[in-house]
Amino acid sequence: MRFVLILILIIFCEGLRAQPATLAPPDSSDRLTRLARQIEPELQGRTDRLSQYVEYFRAQLANDKTLFAFEVAATQGDDGPVVLKGFVEFPETREGLESFLRVLGFDEIENELETLPSAELGEQRFGFVKTAHTLSYDRPKIPHDVVTDCMLGEPLYLLRQEGDYLLVHSQDGYVGYVAAADVHRVGPEAFDRYPTESSVRIVADHQLDSGLMLPLGAVLKRIPDNQDRVMIALPTGEVVEVPSAKCEATELPSDNIEQAIARASQLLGTPYHWGGKTVEGIDCSGLVQVAFASIGLNLPRDSYQQFYLGQLVATRWHRSQLRRGDTLYFVGPHGKIRHTALYLGDDQFLEAEMPRVTISSFNREHENYSPKRDASFVFGKRLW
To answer: Where in this chain does the record put each NlpC/P60 domain (predicted)?
Structure first.
């Protein structure tokens, strides 16, 4: 009898060892129900707690409010429907919040949430800071708190206008309200032209004759000149001369980027394994983490943590500035960042997903086109 038990145990262990390393991420199909039970175990929502449910959803499934636009008010009159007003950035968040409230027993919902960018902006959904700097605030009305400071020439992704303020994504990805008077608004083509690869970084404050201060750290477009001068085009189109001692050329460390891509590409075909970081199995954020760790840049472990790093260079509605080596971020069905990938250029990206590491594409004309990733992409960031 003992021999039979030992034999069964050996066969069982060998079977486990033979399983491929393709452990999938946790199923998200019942995530809303599990989250709802944490705040209301009986799934019987109460009208007087609607604001708490909205905030709980935001904290759990709508990402950091400083990086994702989210301003929602939920109300319910006597025996009336729940009315959702305000705005969110993506349809996944809008639909996810409604589904979450339905799980809590609110059957009648009037979802009036606006998804951004606002249609009222038209084609001019982009801009550049045209003053020495402009502060970004958490709300357009006083009193308000500063979110970040945006410098001259900084690109802005516009989301909506409220009075004299524009809600924007600044270069670091933060969401905040800036004075509309400080922004030079442009369409997508002009946005892509400034600055170009020929740019300079201001290394010491320099005041122009007009009184405009070029602040330390600003990156501005350089105009080619045959003489030993540095001519700069401001976002508004004005061309000015800057002492060469007060600026330096910006350069993209392409060798490091290519090295990171090359090392990540060695993992092509590696089985997907939730939480893995080796050739035996790897997940999406592990792939990106390993790629940059190979050149000495240590990133946080998870995709939603990695998103905090780098310069914002692409949104769902504008991807033309993506370059090789940029990190890509995607949301799940309820609006939370759930996936990341490494951009290779030509609409292609390297990603770890079930069942293995592969190269996918945003381009419908490519054989490896991924409709799922095309639809769920939200942001691209540059670590250099």
So the answer is: 254-384
Q: Is the peptide bond before 143 cis (omega within 30 degrees of 0)?
A: yes
pLDDT at 229: 77
Point out the catalytic residue in the list 98, 284, 334, 353: 284
111: number of Cβ within 10 Å: 14
Annotated catalytic residue within 40, 89, 351, 353: 351
Cα-to-chain-centroid distance, residue 230 = 34
Whether residue 351 lies in the annotated active site: yes
CA 36/CA 58 separation, integer angstroms: 13
And the tokens for 68? 């994702």
Q: What domains does the chain contain, in order, with CATH numbers?
A: 31-115 (no CATH), 126-186 (2.30.30.40), 198-249 (2.30.30.40), 254-382 (3.90.1720.10)
150 tagged catalytic: no
List, for the chain, all residue ranges whose pLDDT scores fall below the cut of 50.
1-22, 27
Give the contacts of 341 (CB within 8 A, at least 6 positions apart): 284, 287, 288, 327, 328, 330, 349, 350, 351, 360, 373
Question: How much is the pLDDT for 286?
Answer: 95
Active-site residue flag, 334: no
Q: Is the pTM of this model over 0.85?
A: yes
One of 339, 365, 366, 367 is an active-site residue; which one? Answer: 339
Quick check: bond before 195 cis, omega within 30? Answer: yes
Give the separation between CA 281 and CA 271, rounded to whole angstroms.
5
Question: How far is it, in rounded angstroms, from Cα 209 to Cα 263?
Answer: 50
